[in-house]
Amino acid sequence: MPFANEDPQPVGRHYTPAVIARLAVAETLRLLQESPGSVFRLRELCALDPACGEGVFLVELLRALIRDSPEDISPEVFANGTLCGIDRDGAAVRRCRQRLVNAVSNLSADQAFVEEELQQALDTCILHGDAMTGPGFRPPEVLAKDKSRTRSRRRRSKTGTPDSALVMPFPAPPIDFAAAFPQAARDGGFDLVVGNPPYLRERNARGLFDIVLDSPLGQRWSQPRMDFWHFFLHRGLDVLRPGGILTFLVSGYWTAAHSAVRLIERLQQETTLRQIVDFGNAKLFPGVSGRHMLIWLQKENSNHPCRVIDLSPLKRKIEAAAAADHRADKSRDETTADECLTWLTDRKAEQREIPSHQLYQDGRLVLRPASARDIGRLSDIRLDEHFEVRQGIAENPAVISTRLNRQFDQRYRVGEGVLVLSPEEVERLEFSPAERELLRPYVKAADIKRYSVPNSPTQWLLYLTRETAPSLERFPQVHRHLERFRPILERRREVAQNRIAWWYLHWPREERIFTEPRLFGVQMSLVPTFARAVQPLYTGFSVNVILPSRETPYTLPAVQGLLNSRRAVEWFDRLAKRRGVNLDISGGLLRRFPLPAPDTELLPELDPLALERETQTGKAAERREIQREQIVNRLYGQS
Q1: What is the DSSP letter of 165?
Q2: Is 313 left (phi over 0), alpha (psi -120 to 50) or beta?
Q3: What is the 8-class DSSP label of residue 592?
Q4: Which of 146, 196, 246, 360 has the greatest number of beta carbons closer than 10 A?
């Protein structure tokens, strides 16, 4: 069979270190063995990696099963579909088959194998194809509303990032699971589904998304801003037998993401989350930052608690083992499964069990159980009952980023203003009085500190909307400035769909949310960061804006004190997404923040302390901080 894409490893693809695969497989088999009616002989097992790549998970699974029942190894076992794999990359599929042949040869030198016979058997179970687009064992029902939403998303995805910046799909035929894996079909599904599905966002992989969105799977499970690996988990559950185990290495950001709500709802309804191993921000792949976790799901709904193991304290040890696996001068096979398992029992690793009824909350997966002091247990008054929570302006773009400049062949200067200008750029452009009326005072998220915003703007926003600039005829200097960036501005989705003119802000918001008294909340920061603003100041998409929505007993200074308190830090730390060392506090989470009961005696005491904190520093600020924390504790009914 001819294979396309013969490069050693396609750019942008990162295969799993063997040490992580060994840990995943060892724990998978342990959980399977604990299940009633467990299958533990190689000849009887059915396992699938739907994104097998070079086969690291399948090789580790093969080694573990050989150790358990070496007498069962034969080409017929593979022909019967014991270990199955699928990948879009034909060259990776060929390498996967060869690695399985090598593993059998290395570990079973006394067995009389004919390599050609084994290769022929592997040709029937390690397949070049698309695991997402063909029919599963039980084709999912497609709802009409899912079809219409998918078609709309597909049209939108045609605009935006240039093709040169996208992850383009390999040509691959759809896999018909019932025809390709008849043994698993007869058994009601695979016993195990394992792997490391690709992490991809739609803006960088629109070709792949469009292919899947045309399929029944995509039409049923698509959700705005979802990650591509979500489709693999949905497919994995579809082809897993009742009681089977699914083990995936995935991104660590999904548990609190709105884009994973449908996925999390399905997990809650159909599965038991048995175990999570959180690697924190340890670098498992060379040159790739981010957070990663292993998850183990069982396809049954039970009250079994979820075991969560935080391995972030072992970051150096894990990174060293992963780097050794990736180095060309060192075999991937040197770290044994037993050494991997010692990570789980290391005294530095934090372990906890979360009862199933505490695991799912408001469409999120909560991996840190609430303590008795958790303010979410002490109050059911939500912030959005008294305040409006909005996001700042989406300029798109504010300035030229490194990535944007790269996409446009380095024709611009990184950092130069497009719709947000520095004071020096404003002076250099020599705007007319009419053009200066378009400027609005602007602050970046980085300029907002706890309890303080700049007294004067650090930048200026060109506030271009239907109302302020229906045409550019009266604004020749603005027109001349933006004309340089027109290729960037015209590729925006709203422009391509003729919803806005090419010079408008992408999402300008109403001006009142930047001129009325309000709180700014930085969406991504090391600790929750909120500051009161009374002067007109505009800000970007990475800042939440909080405004009183009606008559309320809670003042802005008091809420500023509550949101910056230690009790709030504990609540956000438990529920917010993690981005490296930072907390990602979304508007949705902020709306759910629990306010204390409006005590008419204590709340007025909080106001002056919060107001004084806006101007104080040093020891005076520390003393006020202690007083403020004491009042916050009393407001929540704790001494």
Answers
A1: G
A2: alpha
A3: T
A4: 196
Average pLDDT over the chain reads: 85
3-state helix, strand and coil shares in percent for the chain, rounded to the nearest 5:
40, 20, 40
Cα 177 to the chain's mean position, in Å? 28
CA dihedral 469, 470, 473, 476 (to 10 degrees): 30
Distance CA 72, CA 104 (A): 12
- The more confident residue out of 79 and 51 is 51
Kind and range of the H or E element at 67?
A: helix 56-68
Are 383 and 587 in contact by the 8 Å Cβ rule? The answer is no
Q: Per-residue confidence at 373, pLDDT binned at 50, 70, 90? A: confident
Measured in whole angstroms, how far is the alpha carbon of residue 232 from the centre of its chain? 14
Render pLDDT for 239-264 as a digit per residue (tens, 0 to 9): 999 999 999 999 988 988 888 999 99
Instruction: Return d(Cα 89, Cα 9) in angstroms, integer.
Output: 10
Predicted TM-score (pTM) of this structure: 0.74
- Would you give the DSSP letter of residue 271? -
Residues forming a β-bridge with 277: 294, 309
- Contact of 208 with 226, CB cutoff 8 Å: no
pLDDT in tens, 168-224: 556 789 999 999 999 899 989 999 999 999 988 877 788 888 889 899 999 999 998
DSSP 95-132: HHHHHHHHHHHHH-TTS---HHHHHHHHHTTEEESBTT
Return the sign of the alpha-carbon dihedral for residues 51, 54, 60, 62.
Answer: positive
